[in-house]
Amino acid sequence: MTDKLLIRYSYNIAANDFIAAGKGSSSIKNTLKSMGIDASTIRRIAIISYEAEINLVIHSYGGMLHCDLYENKIDIITEDKGPGIENIDLALTEGYSTATESVRELGFGAGMGLPNMKKYSDDFDIASSREGTFIKITVLLQEV
Amino acid sequence: MKILDFADKLNLDPLYEASKDIEVEGVYIGDLLSIVMSKAKKNYAWITIQTHINTVAVAELLELACIIVVENMEVEEETLDKARELNIPVFKTKASAYEIAAKLYEIGIK
Ligand SMILES: Nc1ncnc2c1ncn2[C@@H]1O[C@H](COP(=O)(O)OP(=O)(O)OP(=O)(O)O)[C@@H](O)[C@H]1O
Ligand SMILES: [Mg+2]
């Protein structure tokens, strides 16, 4: 077991940019695919990174999406510039959402993003203040 | 069943027929993206009333077979541009999600 960071992929995520939303996740998925990582792990990472990325677009003032690759795990990390999550337990509750009517019309706001991210992770870390939210999600890689 | 065969049997209007004719392995109906994200799987046809550009991002990430827009909803041009860019087939129909699901059952996709 080693936890030396092999490589970090980073994407700048702009608030309210629905056209670009998903690009970071798509690029992560294609990179992992070309590395020959198994399909079920890629599916989990795609779900996690997409939900994380979309949350930055919808709920934050913008931030970064990172994918850190280690020998035996992948971390998906987001850090944004605020406004933060007031009550993290509540935000992690299935069905809880503060999404506005206009983004709900686009299909967002089921309140399932954070619960899904947690469900598909092996390890889930979140910290938030008014200055921003930091999320780190770990997915372990299967031994080959 | 192959996608073109499937679209033909269901009488779907192609808005963008991608250059792939893959096997449809399942179907998911839903309009809330984060629920679709966790339920729809690779090579599933996705039936929805959503027409927004982000549907294509979801389909691409999950490697869905196609998007079927029901209830004759108008699909934005930027959605189709994205579909062309990412090679995701998009079909449209006047039928409701229920009618399409019933037809799917009839033609043997269960
Ligand atoms: N990066 C963030 N910054 C500020 N608030 C956030 C952030 N991410 C999530 N939240 C808050 O947590 C709530 C729950 O997030 P979650 O992703 O579970 O649901 P949602 O984004 O509202 O809907 P869905 O993800 O199902 O489309 C959000 O409605 C929002 O209030
Ligand atoms: Mg969300």
TrEMBL record, chain A:
It comes from the Bacteria. Gene3D superfamilies: Histidine kinase-like ATPase, C-terminal domain (3.30.565.10). InterPro entries: HATPase_C_sf, HATPase_dom. The lineage of its organism: Bacteria, Bacillati, Bacillota, Tissierellia, Sedimentibacter. Signal peptide: none annotated. This is Anti-sigma regulatory factor. Residues 52-141 form the Histidine kinase/HSP90-like ATPase domain.
Automatic annotation (TrEMBL), chain B:
Keywords: Kinase, Transferase. It comes from the Bacteria. InterPro entries: DRTGG, Ser_kin/Pase_Hpr-like_N_sf. GO terms for molecular function: kinase activity. Residues 59-105 form the DRTGG domain. The keyword Kinase applies. This is Serine kinase. It comes from Sedimentibacter hydroxybenzoicus DSM 7310.
